[in-house]
Amino acid sequence: MKVDHVGVAVRSIDEAAAFYLAHLGLVEVRREEVPQQKVRVAFLADPADPGGTAVELLEPTSPDGAVAKFIAARGLGMHHLAFDAGAVAGAVAGAMELLRQKGRPAIEAAPRAGARGHRVCFVHPKYCGGVLIELVGG
Ligand code: CO
């Protein structure tokens, strides 16, 4: 699977995005709120390849959400690595099942709604060498 995006926990999308836009030449390709995950997210990408690997900035919208708790415990910075499971319907569920069979179950029992209209699930860092892995797709 190719890397779809890298998730970065921030306090303010506007403040964090300024660095990537002004100093690394990225552009903001999408911004939305994901109420189920209690975050507002912005996807930043290379303007020459707006559908390519992105940086996802994650700003908590509530202190009891997973990203807010992450920031409280570990500070700002890298949060997760997301892989593209494929756009076909059921792709995330299929990839999830393969990982479960290999002893690396997702946190969720089934894929849930994520940003950009995708289905997503997360696999706990304890199963992935310390990295929170997201599967994203159909
Ligand atoms: Co993500």
Explain this structure.
With 138 residues, this protein is of the alpha+beta class. 23% of the residues lie in helices and 37% in strands. The chain has an eight-stranded mixed sheet with strand order 2-3-4-1-5-8-7-6. It is globular. The model has no long low-confidence stretch (mean pLDDT 96). Residues 5, 7, 56, 80, 82, 134 line the site of cobalt (II) ion. Cobalt (II) ion is lined by residues 5, 7, 56, 80, 82, 134.
List keywords for this structure.
138 residues, alpha+beta, eight-stranded mixed sheet, 37% strand, globular, binds cobalt (II) ion
Q: Which stretches are poorly predicted, pLDDT < 50 over at least 5 residues?
A: none
**Radius of gyration, whole Å:** 15 Å
- The helix count comes to 3
In terms of DSSP E residues, the strand content is 35-45%
The H-and-E topology, N to C, reads as: EHEEEHEHEEE
Shape: globular
Please describe the topology of this protein:
Elements: E1 3-9, H1 13-24, E2 27-34, E3 39-45, E4 54-60, H2 66-74, E5 77-86, H3 91-101, E6 112-113, E7 119-123, E8 133-137
Parallel strand pairs: 1-4, 5-8
Antiparallel strand pairs: 1-5, 2-3, 3-4, 6-7, 7-8
